[in-house]
Specification:
- This protein is mainly α.
- The protein has a single domain, classed as Orthogonal Bundle (Farnesyl Diphosphate Synthase), CATH 1.10.600.
- The protein is 71% helix and 1% strand.
- A two-stranded antiparallel ribbon has the order 1-2.
- It is globular and about 45 Å long.
- The protein starts with a helix and ends with a helix.
Length: 296
């Protein structure tokens, strides 16, 4: 299959699984459940669940076995977007080409929807019957997602980001922020895909984990580039918002050419990490290409 065909398969799998795990819109409390479904089932790239599927297949795992981990990472991602968009955080009105959750519903409901999605993600990872690994390995998967989501991962990265507004960071500080804010959940997605297999080779696991670290940073650099070069309609979120908030970004620190060179270096390093694998890892290679070439 081509990349676009394979992506469609992955996206179809996770959409069906998300619809299954999310509470029905007519189930009480209806307003909250509608908000959760609105935030999760809206149009999105699904990069994180796609990485779960692509990595799992690289390690010989059947697609159906990967639905639980794929849902869990997407729910965590959706919760983070809901909270990031709130007035107390980034105060954005547009996400994925439509009103943000707090605009479509209200701020209190948006906060609760994010809280509920975070809890549901761990419920899915703990209980999804299709996950065919030992209880011990399932606990490792839960721990990886917890660390990637918390103060030593995504939430910590957001805290650093908020504190950095109007500040001048050096490249090491900026990289540290994004390793946590963006990179942690991308890395967890790849690691959960690998750990969905039994008897994972430690060296192979380290290779894909390093691949994930590289594409996680490259993803954020490309985001910073698009915030300058793209437009609101293409992005589906406000263009230029980082500049307006005086946030430190890679183009500000390295210049546009330097930022693009940094993304390409990380792309090359990510591909080098996959030399351990044959063509079975081609979807991961294609995703690395997509991350530095995407326009939204």
């Amino acid at each position: 299959m081509s990349l676009s065909e394979r992506l469609q398969v992955y996206q179809s799998c996770v959409e069906t699984a998300l619809d299954y795990w999310l509470p029905a819109a007519d189930l009480q409390p209806r307003h909250l459940h509608k908000a959760m479904r609105y935030a999760v089932l809206g149009d999105g790239k699904r990069i994180r669940p796609v990485l779960v599927y692509a990595t799992g297949e690289t390690f010989g795992v059947d697609l159906g076995t990967l639905n639980g981990p794929a849902c869990a990472v997407e729910m965590i991602h959706a919760y983070s977007l809901i909270h990031d968009d709130l007035p107390a955080m980034d105060n954005d009105d547009l996400r994925r080409g439509r009103p943000t959750c707090h605009k479509a519903f209200d701020e209190a409901t948006a906060i609760l929807a994010g809280d509920a999605l975070q809890a549901l993600a761990f419920h899915v990872l703990a209980h999804a019957p299709e996950i065919k690994v030992s209880a011990k390995q399932r606990l490792v998967m839960i721990d990886i997602l917890a660390q990637a989501s918390g103060s030593r991962g995504m939430a910590g990265g957001q805290a650093i980001d908020l504190a950095a507004v109007g500040q001048q960071l050096n490249i090491a500080e900026l990289e540290n922020m994004h390793i946590h804010k963006t990179g942690a959940l991308i890395r967890a997605s790849v690691e959960l895909g690998a750990l969905s297999a039994n008897d994972v080779d430690p060296e192979a696991f380290e290779k894909v984990s390093h691949y994930a670290k590289c594409i996680g940073l490259a993803f954020q650099i490309q985001d910073d580039i698009l915030d300058v070069e793209s437009d609101t309609e293409t992005l589906g979120k406000p263009q230029g918002s980082d500049m307006q908030r005086n946030k430190p970004t890679y183009p500000n620190l390295l210049g546009m050419d330097g930022a693009k060179e940094a993304a390409q270096r990380l792309h090359t390093e990510a591909l080098d990490s996959l030399k351990h694998f044959d063509s079975v890892a081609d979807p991961l290679r294609w995703i690395a290409d997509y991350i530095v070439q995407r326009r939204k």
